[in-house]
Amino acid sequence: MSVARPTLAVVGATGVVGSVLLDILSAREDVWGEIRLVASTRSAGRLLRVRGVDLPVVALDESCFDGVDVALFDVPDDVSARWAPVAVSRGAVVVDNSGSFRMDPEVPLVVPEVNAHQIRNRPRGIIANPNCTTLTMMDALGALHARWNLRELVVASYQAASGAGQSGLDRLFDELEVVGGQRQLGHYSGDVRRALADKLGDDSPFPAPLALNVVPWAGSVRDGGWSSEELKVRDESRKVLGIPDLKVSATCVRVPVATTHSLAVHAVFERAIDAGEARQVLVEAPSVVVIDDPERGEFPTPADVVGSDPTFVGRIRQALDFPNTLDLFVCGDNLRKGAALNTAQIAELVARELPR
Question: Residue 85 to residues 10, 22, 75, 184, 240: CA-CA distances in angstroms?
Fold first, then answer.
């Protein structure tokens, strides 16, 4: 006798992350029965291909959650805040990729390789997905923390334009078209900014030019000169790793990369850590790939990592002047493990535990 497989709803199916999620659902083990695609009213009726079948997009309303077992949300914070509880009230377990519930004490913040057991601790019926910057380093740090007990973390992120959504990606490519072939640009203060303003205007998701530049800002303004992205790295790392007193300082930088975030990580542990032993722990971690041979010019870069699922780690060194400390460089596709893949992994864990 066949067992009915659970019904999945993908809310935000037409977005940047939603599109990646549909590709991931098509490539991973087929654990779902019906897959329901949900988006705004203006997208209703569009056909999107999932698992080799063209499925229609339905408009977001209460009835679209009827009969749904698991609902994946990749929509703006305000949309999740309103509609995730509605999905729960209709019987679905929600896996949410927005920032609305991450720090809610009644909502677990889950990275399956680190704290999969937390999926059962969901009194509100919601499981949160961490921010893509935090997620980029969690697989690696989780493996190291399990062995040496992480105590302090200093991080500089190098974040791709797609982390700002479709508008960020579009702006980067528009800027690259403007500066492409203009070898005179980038030699004088303000010349890149003026060239972009002349062609594109000032309507940009970034506070400064991204082409031929790096921008030491991601997110919105918070007290003390911090950005929201930097505080997310601090708060979410503490929650995922289960270290409420973890000392964290982050600087988030936007770079002219389409997709894949990178982080320079300075991690301080409770006891002495050997770089060779740490390298072996990372090699053995199930979702980490180590590329670390500087003499041959081998280390992870976004151009090589994009489109891949694992976390890539290189430049593994013991800090010369800081005891018990490891320095490393981490890359991860921010649309895959940084968002869609982690969401799909959580959903699959939930699906396995649903009553049949």
Answer: 15, 23, 14, 54, 22
Joined together, the tokens standing for residue 338 give 């940084």
Determine the Cα–Cα distance for residues 41 and 54; give it in Å rounded to an integer: 19
Q: What is the pLDDT of residue 1?
A: 41
Could you give the CA distance from residue 312 to residue 329 in angstroms, rounded to a whole number?
8
Among 151, 173, 142, 150, which residue's Cα sits nearest to residue 160? Answer: 173
Mapped to the 3 state alphabet, what secondary structure does 103-116 carry?
CCCCCCECCHHHHH
Tell me if 292 sits within 8 A of 314, measured CB to CB.
yes
Show the tokens assigned to 187.
Answer: 């030699």
- Please write the tens of the pLDDT for every residue from 68-98: 999 999 999 999 999 999 999 999 999 999 9
Number of CB atoms found within 10 A of residue 225's CB: 7
The pLDDT-based confidence of 354 (bands split at 50, 70, 90) is confident
Q: Which tens digits make up the pLDDT trace of 286-342?
A: 899 999 999 999 999 999 999 999 999 999 999 999 989 999 999 999 999 999 999
DSSP 8-state secondary structure symbol assigned to residue 243: -
> What is the arithmetic mean of pLDDT over 116-142?
96
Which residues neighbour 168 within 8 Å (Cβ) at sequence distance 6 or greater? Answer: 161, 162, 205, 206
Q: State which amino acid sits at residue 22.
A: L
The pair of structure tokens assigned to 270 is: 């409770």
Distance (Å, rounded) from C-alpha 68 to C-alpha 346? 16
Cα–Cα distance measured from residue 259 to residue 13, given in angstroms and rounded to the nearest whole number? 19
Question: For residue 35, what are the CA distances in angstroms to 8, 57, 71?
Answer: 5, 10, 10
Question: How many CB atoms sit inside 10 A of residue 307's CB?
Answer: 12
Active-site positions read 132, 261
Phi, psi of 5 (to 5 degrees): -90, 155
| Beta carbons of 8 and 36 less than 8 angstroms apart | yes
Q: Percent of the chain beyond pLDDT 70?
A: 99
Q: Which two tokens stand for residue 80?
A: 């999740």
Half-sphere exposure of 278 (CA within 13 A, CB side): 29
